[in-house]
Amino acid sequence: MIPVITVDGPSGSGKGTIAQRVAQSLGWHFLDSGAIYRALGLYAEQQGVGSEEVDALAALARTMPLNFRQDEVLLDGKEISALIRTEAVGNAASKVAAIPEVREALLEWQREFARAPGLVADGRDMGTVVFPNAEVKIFLTASPEERALRRYKQLKEKGLSANLAGLTVEIRERDERDCNRAVAPLKAAFDALELDSTEMDVDAVYASVMARVRSRLPGL
Length: 220
Ligand code: DC
Fold this sequence. Notes:
- By secondary structure, this protein is an alpha/beta fold.
- The protein has one domain (4-211): 3-Layer(aba) Sandwich (Rossmann fold).
- 50% of the residues lie in helices and 15% in strands.
- The protein contains nine helices and eight strands.
- It has helices at 15-26, 33-46, 54-63, 87-96, 100-111, 126-130, 144-157, 164-180, 202-216, and strands spanning 4-8, 29-32, 66-69, 72-75, 78-79, 119-123, 136-141, 193-196.
- The strands form two sheets. The protein has a five-stranded parallel sheet. The protein has a three-stranded antiparallel sheet with strand order 3-4-5, covered by helices on one side.
- Helix 2 packs across helix 4 (87-96), helix 3 runs parallel beside helix 5 and helix 4 (87-96) runs parallel beside helix 8.
- It is globular, with a radius of gyration of 17 Å.
- The two termini are 15 Å apart.
- Bound molecules: 2'-deoxycytidine-5'-monophosphate.
- Residues 11, 33-34, 37-38, 90, 93-94, 97, 123-125, 174, 178 line the site of 2'-deoxycytidine-5'-monophosphate (DC).
- Keywords: ATP-binding, Cytoplasm, Kinase, Nucleotide-binding, Transferase.
């Protein structure tokens, strides 16, 4: 059995940063499942497939020419890492992610990322649906205001335009959609460690996560 650590939570909770750091320090593989949904949102737009075309979207999910190479995300051989980080693509991702057939089509593929020596998987349903038997499950949250502020700073750092009030509204709308969808809604697994990072810095969150990892996987 390949050990798996899941890190779930809403956008802007810091789960990506934490999951990546944990993967790096353990020398484990990393799955950014949000990037898959983001790439699909982008791909559907490029292919002219609307968010209501369920069968066509599921077919795209099954055949999407997506690859991960170190820090790069490649769609049909083209680097899309920066392109999929925009709020527009995030919203498109959240819409396609609400479709059960799309989630089903992506399930086995995501599970194949579990390879030796281990996997850290970042997403919304990693601990509840994709890897329900994961050894360590983390659910990371933060207030919507704090998450909007973090996203605002991230976008500014990348030299992209950003509007804090608009981001707060978008984050609330996306939370609403991700939490209330019928399939694999954003929620903590019953056996997850829930951490609210609103008042914590990255180092403090990382320390709490690693303490949990070491208590669950004492051999590490
Ligand atoms: O984590 P992120 O912001 O990159 O995710 C983008 C969207 O993809 C998010 O709004 C919800 C969806 N998503 C999902 O439904 N399930 C996942 N495991 C990961 C992301």
